[in-house]
Amino acid sequence: MTAVLKIGDKAPDFTLPGDSETSISLSSLEGKNVVLYFYPKDDTSGCTKESIEFNQLRKDFEKVNTVILGMSPDSAKSHDKFKKKYDLGFSLAADESKTTLEAYGVWVEKSMYGKKYMGIERTTFLIDSTGKIAAIWPKVKVDGHAAEVLAAAQKL
User: Fold this and answer.
1) Which domains can be identified in the chain, with CATH numbers?
2) Fewer CB within 10 Å: C terminus or N terminus of the chain?
């Protein structure tokens, strides 16, 4: 069952494998704002562009106490390659079980050419330093998205 989260809700906590053999949990980031962006697949055109745009603004996010965290159902090993290839300076979480994707309501039924399948709806959550959801961007269009999220983070 997919969740329907709203602004003001407590963001669901998680502990997942990260890149570089790390473990990533939302609760460990308390005290910082978190950009949690869900993307379909490492090293695909839209996901690469989105990740690069967030990476280019990383220092601006850091200035406003905000951590960037990407998440997809890819493996941690895949994340390692993706992160290294594009020199990404933030963590990527691997949710191969899709438990967290479901908790955030981003693992949804999709349709292409009349075929139905399950996949990620590209979505970004801005979580404030107390762990509450401050903003949600569903069905993200990549161009300019990172800058839009930065503008919202600067207001927290």
Assistant:
1) 16-153 (3.40.30.10)
2) N
